[in-house]
Amino acid sequence: MPLRCAVRGKGRGWQTRADGCKIYVWSGRSVPREAGLSEAILKTENLWKIYRVGKVDVAALQGVSLEVMPGEFVAVMGPSGCGKSTLLYIIGGLTQATRGRVLVDGNDLTELSDAVRTQIRRTKIGFVFQRFNLLPTLTAEGNIAIAQHIHGNGFDPHRFKLVTDLLGLSERLRHKPSMLSGGEQQRVAIARAIINEPKIVLADEPTGNLDSKTAEVVLKMLEKLNQELGQTILMITHNPEAAAYARRVMHMRDGQIQDGVA
Amino acid sequence: MIAELISRNIAHRPVRTAISIIAIAVEVTLVVIIVGLTSGLLQDSAKRIEGIGADIMMQPPSSSLILAFSGAPMPIRIREKLEQMKGVKAVAPVLVQFHSAGIELIYGIEPKSFDAVSGGFVFHQGGAFEEPDELLVDDFYAAAKKIRVGETRRLLDHDFRVVGIVEHGKGSRLFVPLATLQDLSGSQDKASIFFVKCKDPEETSQVMAAMQRVFPRHQLRPLKSYLSMMTSSSLPGLNAFVDSMIVLAVVIGFLVIFLSMYTTILERTHEIGILKSMGASDRYLVKLVLSEAGLLGGIGIGAGIGLSYLTRALMLNLFPTLIILITGGWLAKASFLAAVAALAGALYPAYLAAKQDPIEALAYE
Hints:
The complex is a heterodimer.
Chain A: E1 5-7, E2 13-16, E3 22-25, E4 42-53, E5 56-68, E6 73-77, H1 84-91, E7 99-104, E8 107-108, H2 114-124, E9 125-128, H3 140-151, H4 157-166, H5 182-194, E10 200-204, H6 212-229, E11 232-237, H7 240-243, E12 248-253, E13 256-259
Parallel strand pairs in A: 1-3, 6-11, 6-12, 9-10, 10-11
Antiparallel strand pairs in A: 2-3, 4-5, 4-7, 7-8, 12-13
Chain B: H1 2-12, H2 14-51, E1 56-59, E2 74-75, H3 78-84, E3 88-99, E4 104-109, H4 111-118, E5 123-126, E6 134-138, H5 139-145, E7 152-155, E8 158-166, E9 174-177, H6 178-185, E10 190-191, E11 193-198, H7 204-214, E12 219-222, H8 226-229, H9 238-267, H10 269-277, H11 282-318, H12 328-354, H13 358-363
Parallel strand pairs in B: 4-9, 6-8
Antiparallel strand pairs in B: 1-11, 1-12, 2-10, 3-4, 3-11, 5-8, 6-9, 7-8
Helix pairs in contact in B: 1-11, 2-9, 2-11, 2-12, 9-12, 11-12
């Protein structure tokens, strides 16, 4: 029986529905916004980030407040230097805010130790970067599997197959990053980001290093992940064409969200 | 998965990996060979002394167990006093002279008394001394130096004719007449050692006690326990030398691994950032670095054990009379030291990896 769809539900793994369709149940932890629950998966409140450059304080973020609901695909758009990446790194727990709160699945990252933030990142967040950031010594398969290893749940072959099939990587798994095209590398990076069923995928200019045709493929993949798996995605981009794939777009300028907050 | 990442990492930089492995292998080999050489030479020397077959060895006051380091010889007339003692069957005076050219001891012996104590030589070729300038060599020495009966060898600035090749294990590898050696070393009527054979070996302690009463300051040793007494602590400074060499070897291993892992961490800063972005904990990264050092250490230790045996084979080929004792105990100790040095060398790089700022690491080119 061919794979028809992957759905959220109780339990995890392959199940056969009453109509005979074979489905992959991948988690029941987060519920799409459309289901009617209003608990935000991501929330920032009056977020400030001030860098000290020499003797001058530079405010990269100036009171950013936003919410992302489960199952949403949100784009944050803005010009270079407006604070998009800083916002993403703070949300991802890679750095701390100077002021304000960041709640990921109810956990306030600003209150947590570095070790706990790392744990939140490991279990609830998946990153996709502009530069792909694959480990050059590992194959595509290794790059995806290491995320599962770091996560600590071990290798899940069903999840692995689902994700790699979905992203069209099945034939390229034995190749190292240097032998993959930019689009393939980014698809491997996306597979790595979602392999552990994170609460939210943070994508930092995921098409910034790709030509328009490949960028379209990657964006369609992200859209597909959002629509078919209900994956929550927050994408940073300066490209309006890329932002158009999101269901909601926030505009950012000078460290502040201009519109699209709700 | 971690094993795959580590193995691919070490395969990624083959030269650095090879240098690290070689450094650890050399570290293990240095320890094993230095200890093996000292203990081998000491044991061989002790076995040969035991092999003489005497029951008691008498040396001058304050003399060393290591015969080459013994002080002034004793008057040879002591022999008569010893022979008159109750329970003494035979006494063999021996003058020992260090032959620096071959790093060997030469025994000056009287064939008759030496035979009485030792039971006589087993001759592979030739026969006993008949003239003052004659030389006996043991089979090991003869094979190593390709010596044949009838040829002349120059020892102590004097030409000796080889008259016999004897079975090894009778104290020395080179034997010359006692009187000749006394003349050559300016020690007329002197002996370095008296080997005493008791009528009944069971009475050795009583005979020794009697000898001690007459010669209270002289060194008397039962040869039955000579082997156990012959340790590196018997030779002044030997332990310090061996320990220094071991410390040096361990420090070399530590520094090479430290440098290797430190440069690895610098080079892989970006990869560390990637792992951190995936949620790799400090502990995970420390484990990754230490495991890599551990793998290098393990391969290096294995190579070091092999290299130790290879070095021994090469050294024995070049210097066949050398004895290099490689024991399981010292292989284990050297392996342990190398493993500790490798892990210690990787500790700081592991700490650096764990403490990298993820954003800076991700931005690292």
